[in-house]
Amino acid sequence: MEFSLALSTWAGLLTLVVLEVVLGIDNLIFVAILSEKLPPNQRDKARLIGLGLALVMRLALLSLISWVATLNSPIINNQFFVLSVRDIILLCGGCFLLFKTTIELHERLENNYHENAENKNYAGFWAVVIQIVILDAVFSLDAIITAVGMVNELLIMMLAVIIATILMSFASKKLTNFVNLHQTVVVLCLSFLLMIGFSLVTEALKFCIPKGYLYAAIGFSILIEIFNQIASHNFMKNQSRRPMRQRAAEAILRLMIKEKNNNQTTKNATQNNKKEINSAESEKEKETFKEEEKYMINSVLTLAGRSIRSIMTPRSNISWVNTEKNIDEIRIQLLDTPHSLFPVCKGELDEIIGIVRAKELLIAIEKKIDVYTFASKIPPIIIPDTLDPIDLLGVLRRAQGSFVIVSNEFGVVQGLITPLDVLEAIAGEFPDADETPDIIQENNSWLVKGETDLHSLQQLLNTKKLIQENNYASLGGLLIAQKGQLPIPGEVIYIDPFHFHIVKATEYRIDLVRIIKNQDEC
């Protein structure tokens, strides 16, 4: 009754069962590999028979080692230490555990895992079973020595081994998958082995450490690992609720940022040696992304998170044909404007009749065809300003080289989008012949148009502090929102770490801004 009621006995049994299961992970991995060589209908049978026979062998080894461990008569006795056969076994076993655990930890930390070689030809049933038994015997040595080091009663050791083998038999597949997904558990248990091995060595040398200390340390570590696994599970659960596209984009962007930081570190570390700089930079030149490639990758990955308004050509920049003008004015407009496509409207931009090509409309005018009648044959494609940019690509394909009109919920035209606008959103600006670039860099500052797209500007300035809301898509919209009203020329608006100097503005909009980065941040 004292055996069954002793709290330390139950604690030792529970701890030993857990360790026996964990130490059997290598066994399970090899059992899984070997069983895969059999036909599917024989795999479970071979796994159970192999582990059952291995249990018998393990109990035999355990009985033998336990008997030897009872030999306490000193065989080495001098002024430094006294060693019995049991002490020598414990000392050798402890050193073996320390050595094996160190090797295993090194392999785990260096990512040198067991590799699975595929075998398409099925092996013989009993050949696989025999291999399972032999491999289990080989990998059971550390488990047997651990059992001797943890508790002193043979019955406790055997009971722990039997329970652990039964658990592994029923949960071999799940345990193997769990370990493959949670390598921290393996590292934690290998750390336990280091403690047990050290305990065996100190016990053999008569520097005994109370086993209660080991149980407390192991129990506390297991509790922390349980919390870690719960936190990881909750994190992955929350991550799975986010769109896959957003998670993939963030992962790739983090890799690019890490690569950029590594490149900068390498460059700073080799500044004192010009030859090393040249060779390192030439190697990086081959391996890493170019700046334009990073810009385009970033733009593609963030395209889905942008608004249609940040891509479109705004209403104020649209050149349109008014059917209420006379033919000569329309002809001059078509010849003087470099655009090839025009929306044709009646009186105002919101009354769109159709979309025409300048060349075709000029030919129609020469043939005395009515402009209104000609334009009405090609109706416009109108999309809402709330459309997902990814869906926009399909709409543009249906437009067959034309453009689409962006309208709000009240039917007021907000702008238009051409395939070139999408390309500029991805690769950067391509100014027309009659346009100046939206962003001009001058020494340590940038001269930027107020209508400049915030996404492009944010990438150029290498910051994430500009786009905080979806209520604005341009630099002018950002500064107006920041100020609370339309700023006047000469005003300075500070958004850490940039100073925005208003260079030119009217009563209705911001035309030109000079951006200067705070020197403390450079």
Q: What is the straight-line distance between the termini? A: 76 Å
Q: What's the arrangement of strands in the largest beta sheet? A: 10-11-14-13-12
* Number of domain modules: 3
The whole-number mean of residue pLDDT values reads: 75
Largest sheet: 5 strands, antiparallel
The helix content, as a percent range, equals: 55-70%
| Portion in beta strands | 5-15%
Strand count: 14
Low-confidence stretches: 1-5, 113-120
Number of helices: 20
Shape: elongated
Helix-and-strand structural type = alpha+beta
Rg (C-alpha, Å):
37 Å
Biased composition (Low complexity): 263-272
Biased composition (Basic and acidic residues): 273-286
Domain CBS: 312-371, 375-435
Transmembrane segments: 12-34, 46-68, 80-103, 124-148, 154-172, 184-201, 213-236
What is the element layout, followed by pairings?
Elements: H1 2-5, H2 7-23, H3 25-35, H4 40-69, E1 74-77, E2 82-84, H5 85-109, H6 125-139, H7 141-150, H8 154-181, H9 183-204, H10 211-240, H11 244-269, H12 274-287, H13 291-302, E3 313-314, E4 321-322, H14 327-336, E5 341-345, E6 352-357, H15 358-366, H16 371-375, E7 382-384, H17 389-399, E8 404-407, E9 413-417, H18 419-427, E10 439-442, E11 445-449, H19 454-461, H20 475-483, E12 492-495, E13 498-505, E14 510-517
Parallel strand pairs: 4-5, 7-8
Antiparallel strand pairs: 1-2, 3-9, 5-6, 8-9, 10-11, 11-14, 12-13, 13-14
